[in-house]
């Protein structure tokens, strides 16, 4: 019953969005009704999504999708998150978000009606294409042909709080770029040289970028403690795919600062907006068609892949076609100097685009080679580390001082202060390198990270002005964001290069000594949870005589899907994570793997600061 | 001038430190770690041999250790492994004709775009 409601509102919503797209010459729709129909369509798609969610919550196994991906034993939160834990449901979520973004835009935007309607029409076009995709290839409302009273269950690895909210966050990012895309195209269709769209593009691209950052961070945090591989970023194809629109979004956000009435940059911004959304769709295609091997294994099928490829060519082709047809009307040159703010921003853009292209190339190259020569190759972490990182390095170096560069000249005020700070820093970093194992990447990463942090702090200090007001916070926002990046770079450098790994064979009651801390295996016991059995080891952590905490590495067994997942036990400390994985048992002796990951917390702090400054940037000055 | 003087002093100091630190030697375990990080565990999902605990990964780790002890260098071990398992095992593909595009393209684009940038820079400065 509930599935019927869902499906019919999905179809109605599609119908309404089609109605809006009919050209003026056939039906002359009044502006008032245009908005009404549009918003009604959004409400309908939300009803559709909510009814799927209701089917999941009530475990309505007459719905085929629920039957395949849910189980009545699951806790409520995973019943809800199960809605988007599968292909059909997640595409429906994607679809609703396209519509919701349009809905919000129709309320928030202060542009005049002509422009607004163009934006909404394009947004609706995208919605229509995707809704046809849902109806014809990925319908989540199919009826289960057999009568059953239990479902097949959700993949246990997805049953995790971070992963429950990871897809919606990520999608808010990806889909947000669809609105940026619509804004870009609408600005091309417009003939006068009004600048209002830039303000809107800025706002919405920062919104999307911030959500995308949060989504990616949640995903990698999940990978850190759930996969139990000791790391948090694996250059997995799906990770790469999420990184591409993220990088282009970052380039977009930065070029929006550059606008000073130059048409060249306006065109560039439109180009980036189109590219961003294209990459989001391309990513969906690559993941859902099953072309790539990855940790993210959704059931995939060829007809879906073909359909998404079609969508990709439609949107990208349409976007770039209009981009090419509408040639620039005036030409004025940019003011480039070595190095002023404009050229720093341009170099930043160039480097980011090249980084994105490299990631794209590395991700699809194995496919190309397999098609052409029928040999399989892999392109993994080591390739990206030795190409993307060196390309980005000059950008990182530049970003430390970029916010204080001037638009007009190539001088930095109080230049000498920066030189002194840089020298002191490098002295410190050299000392650090001297007293620990020297590693060239460790050296560069540490120097760069700390240089970015200190240069940004210095720039804030040199303004000789401290205020407790929102406007002040907003004016130093770029420095704050860059400090976040610096902290993140230090975290990444240390956690990947100075990671230590130990293996122990240990039985109950034994103590092991790791880096001045004593870990004692208190007990190993089986705990019965709601929908799984957990084999939990309890380690007490003692620093000297003082008990500072417990580490609980575990293995969970999910009887429904007959799968075992490893849960890493982590003791978080500001400076070091103790990360433990429970191995196998032999005659009461457990093999245990212990990683000491220094400064991992810096990564999350850095990301948090970036997200924070993203939020600050959204609000008006 | 005084500033310049101190600047030079600090630079000498830094140079001394770096030279000292680079000269630390590489031991066998590091060599094994470095190589196995670049090998794909063929029975896992996108995981390196080093990070994995599967049977396959442990076999490969032993093979790598053996070969290092036999006196083979990193390159020779890689060739041995690719003969046996195919190029798929390498996370960092060989630099050869087939993979030329993969390795060259990023840096080529970088050069070209920086060239363009430099040309535009000159143009604005002559204006």
Concise structural overview:
The complex is a heterodimer of chains A (621) and B (127). Chain A is an alpha+beta fold and 621 residues long. Chain A has helices at 2-21, 31-57, 64-69, 76-81, 87-108, 113-137, 161-189, 196-226, 237-258, 263-288, 302-325, 341-373, 381-399, 415-435, 440-461, 470-475, 477-497, 600-618, and strands spanning 500-507, 511-514, 517-528, 533-543, 546-551, 554-558, 563-567, 569-571, 576-586, 589-598.
Instruction: Write down the overall geometry of chain B.
Output: flat
Q: Between the first and last Cα atoms of chain A, what is the distance in angstroms? A: 49 Å
Total separate domains of chain B: 2
How many distinct helices of chain A? 18
Largest interface: A-B, 55 and 48 residues
Write down the secondary-structure element order of chain B: HHHHH
Task: Determine the N-to-C terminus distance of chain B.
Answer: 34 Å
What's the CATH topology label of the largest domain in chain B? Helicase, Ruva Protein, domain 3
CATH superfamily of the largest domain in chain B: Cytochrome C biogenesis protein
Round the mean pLDDT of chain B to the nearest integer and report it. Answer: 78
Largest sheet properties of chain B:
none
Low-confidence stretches of chain B: none
Please provide the ordered H/E string of secondary-structure elements of chain A: HHHHHHHHHHHHHHHHHEEEEEEEEEEH
Class inferred from helices and paired strands of chain A? alpha+beta
Class per helix and strand makeup of chain B: mainly alpha
Text of the CATH class of the largest domain in chain B: Mainly Alpha
Q: What do these coordinates show?
A:
The complex is a heterodimer of chains A (621) and B (127). The relative contact order of chain A is 0.07. Chain A is globular. In chain A, strands 2, 3, 4, 5, 6 and 7 form a six-stranded antiparallel beta sheet that branches. Chain A has a four-stranded antiparallel beta sheet with strand order 1-10-9-8, covered by helices on one side. By secondary structure, chain A is of the alpha+beta class. Among the domains of chain A are: 1-159; 398-498 and 602-618; 500-599, no CATH class. Chain A starts with a helix and ends with a helix. Chain A is 61% helix and 12% strand. In chain A, helix 7 crosses helix 10 and helix 17 packs antiparallel against helix 18. Chain A contains 18 helices and ten strands. Chain B is an all-alpha fold and 127 residues long. Chain B folds into two domains: 26-94, Cytochrome C biogenesis protein (Helicase, Ruva Protein, domain 3, Orthogonal Bundle), CATH 1.10.8.640; 95-127. Chain B is built from five helices and no strands. Chain B has helices at 2-22, 28-36, 55-69, 74-85, 100-126. In chain B, helix 2 (28-36) crosses helix 3 (55-69). The radius of gyration of chain B is 23 Å and the shape is flat. The model of chain B has no long low-confidence stretch (mean pLDDT 78). Classes of the chains: A alpha+beta (621), B mainly alpha (127). Chains A and B meet through helix 12, helix 13 and helix 14 of A and helix 1 and helix 5 of B.
């Amino acid at each position: 019953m509930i599935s019927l409601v869902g499906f019919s509102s999905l179809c109605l919503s599609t119908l309404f969005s089609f109605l809006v797209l009919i050209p003026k010459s056939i039906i002359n729709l009044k502006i008032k009704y245009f908005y009404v129909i549009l918003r009604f369509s959004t409400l309908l798609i939300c009803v559709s999504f909510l009814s799927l969610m209701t089917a999941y919550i009530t475990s309505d196994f007459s719905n085929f999708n629920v039957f395949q991906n849910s189980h009545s034993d699951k806790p409520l939160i995973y019943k809800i998150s199960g809605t988007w834990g599968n292909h059909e449901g997640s595409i429906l979520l994607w679809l609703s978000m396209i519509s919701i973004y349009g809905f919000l835009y129709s309320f928030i935007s202060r542009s005049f009606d002509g422009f607004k309607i163009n934006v909404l029409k394009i947004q609706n076009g995208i919605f229509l294409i995707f809704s046809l995709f849902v109806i014809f290839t990925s319908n989540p409302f199919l009826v289960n042909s057999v009568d059953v009273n239990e479902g097949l269950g959700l993949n246990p690895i997805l049953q995790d709080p971070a992963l429950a909210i990871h897809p919606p966050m990520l999608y808010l990012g990806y889909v947000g770029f669809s609105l940026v895309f619509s804004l870009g195209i609408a600005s091309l269709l417009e003939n006068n040289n009004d600048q209002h769209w830039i303000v809107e593009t800025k706002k919405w691209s920062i919104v999307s970028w911030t959500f995308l950052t949060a989504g990616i961070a949640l995903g990698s945090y999940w990978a850190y403690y759930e996969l139990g591989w000791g790391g948090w970023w694996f250059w997995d194809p799906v990770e790469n795919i999420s990184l591409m629109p993220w990088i282009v979004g970052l380039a977009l956000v930065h070029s929006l600062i550059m606008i000073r009435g130059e048409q060249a940059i306006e065109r560039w911004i439109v180009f980036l907006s189109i590219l961003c959304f294209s990459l989001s769709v391309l990513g969906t295609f690559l993941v859902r068609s099953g072309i790539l091997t990855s940790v993210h294994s959704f059931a995939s099928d060829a007809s879906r892949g073909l359909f998404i490829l079609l969508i990709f060519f439609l949107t990208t082709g349409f976007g770039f076609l209009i981009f090419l047809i509408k040639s620039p009307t005036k030409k004025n040159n940019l003011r480039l100097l070595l190095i002023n703010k404009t050229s720093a921003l341009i170099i930043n853009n160039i480097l980011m685009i090249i980084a994105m292209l490299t990631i794209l190339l590395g991700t699809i190259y194995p496919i190309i080679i397999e098609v052409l020569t029928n040999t399989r190759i892999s392109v993994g972490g080591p390739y990206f580390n030795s190409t993307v990182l060196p390309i980005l390095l000059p950008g990182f170096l530049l970003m430390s001082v970029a916010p204080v560069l001037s638009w007009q000249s190539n001088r930095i005020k109080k230049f000498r202060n920066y030189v002194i700070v840089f020298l002191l820093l490098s002295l410190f970093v050299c000392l650090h390198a001297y007293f620990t194992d020297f590693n060239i990447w460790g050296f560069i990463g540490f120097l760069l990270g700390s240089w970015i942090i200190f240069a940004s702090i210095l720039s804030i200090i040199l303004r000789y002005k401290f205020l407790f007001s929102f406007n002040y916070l907003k004016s130093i926002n770029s420095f704050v964001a860059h400090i976040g990046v610096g902290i993140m770079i230090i975290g990444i450098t240390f956690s990947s290069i100075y990671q230590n790994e130990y293996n122990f064979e240990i039985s109950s009651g034994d103590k092991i000594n790791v880096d001045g801390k004593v870990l004692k295996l208190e007990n190993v016991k089986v705990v019965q949870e709601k929908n799984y059995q957990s084999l939990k080891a309890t380690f007490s952590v003692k620093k000297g005589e003082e008990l500072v905490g417990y580490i609980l590495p575990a293995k969970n067994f999910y009887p429904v899907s007959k799968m075992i997942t490893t849960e890493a036990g982590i003791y978080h400390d500001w400076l070091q994570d103790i990360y433990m994985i429970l191995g196998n048992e032999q005659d009461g002796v457990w093999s245990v793997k212990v990683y000491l990951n220094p400064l991992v917390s810096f990564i999350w702090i850095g990301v948090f600061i970036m997200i924070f400054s993203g939020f600050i940037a959204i609000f008006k000055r | 001038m005084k500033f310049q003087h101190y600047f030079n002093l600090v630079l000498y100091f830094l140079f001394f430190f770096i030279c000292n630190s680079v000269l630390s030697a590489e031991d066998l375990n590091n060599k094994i770690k470095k190589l196995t990080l670049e090998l794909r565990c063929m029975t896992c999902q996108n995981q390196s041999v080093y990070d994995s605990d599967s049977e396959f990964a442990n076999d490969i780790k032993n093979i790598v250790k053996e070969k290092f002890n036999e006196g083979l260098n990193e390159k020779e071990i890689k060739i041995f492994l690719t003969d046996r398992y195919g190029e798929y095992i390498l996370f960092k593909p060989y630099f050869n004709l087939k993979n030329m595009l993969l390795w060259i393209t990023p840096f080529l684009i970088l050069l070209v775009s920086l060239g363009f940038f430099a040309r535009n820079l000159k143009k604005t400065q002559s204006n």
